[in-house]
Write a structure and sequence with these properties.
- The protein has 382 residues and is an alpha/beta fold.
- It has 15 helices and 15 strands.
- It folds into two domains: 195 residues, Rossmann fold; 169 residues, Rossmann fold.
- Strands 5-4-3-6-7-8-9 form a seven-stranded parallel beta sheet, sandwiched between helices.
- Strand 7, helix 5 and strand 8 form a beta-alpha-beta unit.
- The radius of gyration is 22 Å and the shape is elongated.
């Protein structure tokens, strides 16, 4: 790649490119079978990098939804398996792809892909590797510790995740940087206030509370608060947004025991292009998860004008300014009282929503995220 770079002072590895910079060749690796926030971010990042002139290729999991999504967008995709003999064959296949395509660097998006990717890379010339740690949990095996040393940079999606990485693996502290996620923002488009009525025929059920994510994110605790919320708001509806799994029955049984089963609505997976309307037509976006590494839905909700109520934990304090564009509680009782107070105060919710949109436009845009990654890539090449 032929490119002049200049170090700038915002962060140690930041650089700017001149107009004559030719694109880099970047291989994205992700063996996830499902589609979630990590994959959504990977797609957004890749589309923007391609728009800026870089070449993106993908090594993904065979038969996964990720293969179909990235092929649909016109990206070159190779795929392999993650287990058994198929994993061994995949390492050789990945090594062949790296050699044939002459990539400038490899960007890994799941920590469990470090070891097979490092083995393939070792046989292919040892080009630089970057990991984005999207998740709160990661492998703690001795071999994983050793292989972390092969990475040029580890990107954490929040200071909370970075701190956890540095604490558990101090020797990679100097390699670890933070790049907050960005989200597409429809700041000039008002959310459809009738989304839930139009899309799901939810009528006569106000206020609407939403909780987003896979069903391991402590939704049952919020269900447990519904009896107290209904004492003041008897028609409240809690909308659970996210792919439905086996835990649905557990949630329903829990709600039935509390006498609030009729207050639950399982919306299932909402397409990304509908999330602006889905979140923007809620009264509050609520999270009970204490180990959220970042929280895409929080930023998406703020961009749509909906405040967050959550615990002061994980990556939330880096997104939300307490009592300015959301509420971060220290205890369950404090969180309950915050929900009740904000449901009573429409003006405060509106002001928080306006503040949230402003904060997202300032800090969490795709342009900022892509520029930070581009700078990181080029600093490694330099």
């Amino acid at each position: 790649m032929d490119c002049d770079v200049m170090i700038v002072s915002r962060v140690p590895w930041s650089i700017t490119m001149n107009n004559t910079c030719s694109g880099m060749k970047i291989l994205m690796v992700n063996s996830s079978r499902n589609w979630g926030g990590t994959e959504e971010l990977m797609l957004l990042l890749s589309l923007e990098l391609r728009r800026k002139g870089h070449y993106l290729g993908f090594f993904l999991r065979e038969y996964s939804v990720t293969v179909r999504r990235f092929e649909k967008e016109g990206f070159p995709v190779w795929y392999g398996r993650r287990r058994g003999i198929g994993l061994i064959a995949s390492v050789f296949k990945l090594s062949s792809v790296i050699r044939a395509e002459r990539f400038d660097l490899i960007h890994i998006h799941r920590s469990h892909d470090i070891i097979p990717t490092a083995l393939a890379n070792f046989a292919s010339g040892l080009i630089p590797m970057v990991l984005t740690q999207h998740a709160w949990e990661f492998s703690k095996s001795c071999l994983q510790y050793l292989v972390f040393g092969t990475l040029k940079r580890i990107v954490a999606v929040s200071e909370a995740v970075a701190g956890r990485l540095r604490e558990m693996q101090p020797y990679i502290a100097d390699k670890t940087v933070v790049i907050h996620n960005g989200v597409p923002i429809k700041s000039q488009v008002k959310p459809d206030p009738d989304y839930w009525t139009r899309r799901f025929e939810l009528t006569g059920t106000e206020p609407l509370l939403g909780i987003v994510g896979f069903f391991h994110k402590n939704q049952q605790e919020l269900i447990g608060l519904l009896p107290k919320i209904r004492e003041t708001f008897p028609d409240v509806k809690l909308i659970l947004i996210g792919a439905v799994d086996d835990r649905k029955q557990m949630f329903e049984e829990h709600a039935a025991r509390l006498g609030v089963l009729d207050a639950l609505f399982f919306a299932g997976f909402i397409p990304h292009e509908e999330m602006h309307d889905a979140l923007g037509s809620l009264y509050l976006n609520i999270s009970m998860h204490r180990h959220e590494p970042f929280g895409l839905h929080v930023v998406e909700g703020m961009a749509a004008g909906t405040p967050l109520v959550a615990y002061r934990a994980g990556g939330f304090p880096e997104i939300v300014e307490h009592e300015r564009n959301g509420y971060l509680a220290e205890s369950q009782e404090e969180l309950l009282q915050a929900i009740l107070a904000l449901l009573r105060d429409r003006d405060k919710r509106t002001k928080m929503g306006q503040s949230g949109r402003e904060r997202v436009l300032k800090l969490f845009t795709p342009d900022r995220m892509v520029s930070d990654y581009e700078a990181l890539y080029l600093s490694i090449k330099k």
